[in-house]
Amino acid sequence: MAEAFSRWPKLPCSVSPLEHLRWKLASHTVAEKFHVVVDSPHGIVGARLDWGLRTVVGEQEYDVRMSIDRAVRPKYRKNYAMSAMRNYKQELHDKSFDMYLGYSSDAPGLQNLQKYSARGVTRYRRLIDVLFCDVPAATVFEGNAPWQVRRAQTFDERVDWLWSSARAQFLYGVVRSSAHLNWRYADARGGDYVILTAEEDSRWLGYVVLRTSETTGYIADLLALPDRLDVIESLLSAAIEHFRAGGQQRVECWSEGHSVHRWALDKAGFRQLRRSIGLTFRPLRFAPEEAAFLGDPTASILFSAGDTDLV
Fold first, then answer.
1. What is the pLDDT of residues 58-90, one digit of tens each?
2. Which pairing describes strands 250-256 and 124-134: parallel, antiparallel, or unpaired?
3. What are phi and psi of 223, to 5 degrees?
4. Among residues 95, 75, 96, which one has the least CA distance to residue 4?
5. What is the mean pLDDT of the segment spanning 288-292?
6. Dihedral sign, CA of 53, 270, 239, 7?
């Protein structure tokens, strides 16, 4: 990985790159069967890694596959190693998941892969905005809230209750179970995250997950009970204060255009657009019509930077 990508892992990590990779390989028991390497007399020259995510699609839950890393050592890039990985057991790959989720960025590898997209299949596309605010100018929540914002080390059954109460806001979203969130954010091998929760009477009203890199802060995940923009404002304020204390100058947060959190983000100062991330949804094992809402930019979905491996 380090040879294929000049800076990998992208963000600082307190464990070795090898331990980070081992964590990355363990998202889902089905996904573990489809990680691919290209071997040669000179060792491994390429790798294709996937995540498997349990996801709400409308009223149903499905297993969604996401390609997170496809890498070939530089001197082997003209030897068809990437093509070999792309084609290896592709039909079985597709039959083992309910939907494929891809995302596009300015990375040359991702742009090249788009040239080989399957023709004649149903896809739905969305754009996610990468918003940022300047920490010195950010707005913080004022008032005496009846809840407390506290730091947590792990997620417990209170987040399972929160997710079951909050999921009705979204037609699409990765299931925010305690098991998934602990793998994603509470395992040191995944990265150094800060988990803040809004707690009242032993209930979690919401949470926010943070990460930093030099002078930039990232909001990796954000969730609250329905119609509780006051809780979202409080969590955003706590996040900004955390980054301010850490010396970060800018904070990034992902949000689709009609997010239920968008108003609170705008109020806090997340009004500047850095770029947009393109999402592509391809149903595999259910009728494409079930996911047709994904092509409607006004349909509310939940997709954060932490749903990828970019943060």
1. 999 999 999 888 888 887 777 677 777 777 777
2. antiparallel
3. -155, 145
4. 75
5. 95
6. positive
**What are the structure tokens assigned to 4, written together?**
């294929």
Distances (CA, A) of 120 to 98, 110, 117: 18, 20, 10
Per DSSP, the residues of the chain read -TTTSSSSSSS--SS-HHHHHHHHTTS-TTGGG--EEEEETTEEEEEEEEEEEEEEETTEEEEEEEEEEEEE-GGGTTTTHHHHHHHTTHHHHHHTSSEEEEEE-S-HHHHHHGGGPPSS---EEEEEEEEEEEGGG-----S--SSEEEEESS--HHHHHHHHHHGGG-SEEE---HHHHHHHHS-GGG---EEEEEEETTEEEEEEEEEEETTEEEEEEEEE-TT-HHHHHHHHHHHHHHHHHHT--EEEEEEETT-TTHHHHHHHT--EEEEEEEEEEEESSS-GGGGGGGG-TTS-EE--GGGTT--
Between residues 143 and 70, the one the model is more confident about: 70
Q: How far apart are CA 96 and CA 50, in angstroms?
A: 12
Q: Which of 9, 66, 301 is nearest to 167 (CA)?
A: 301
**Which residues are 54's β-sheet partners?**
63
Map tokens 């809402």 to a residue.
Answer: 293
What pLDDT is recorded for position 105? Answer: 57
Quote the pLDDT of residue 113: 44
Taken in order of first residue, the domains within the chain and their CATH numbers are 17-126 (3.40.630.30), 130-307 (3.40.630.30)
Q: How many CA atoms lie within 13 A of 271 on its CB side?
A: 7
Please give the model's pTM, rounded to 2 decimal places: 0.90
> What's residue 115's pLDDT?
46
Amino acid identity at 42: H
Query: What whole-number percentage of the chain has pLDDT above 90?
Result: 64
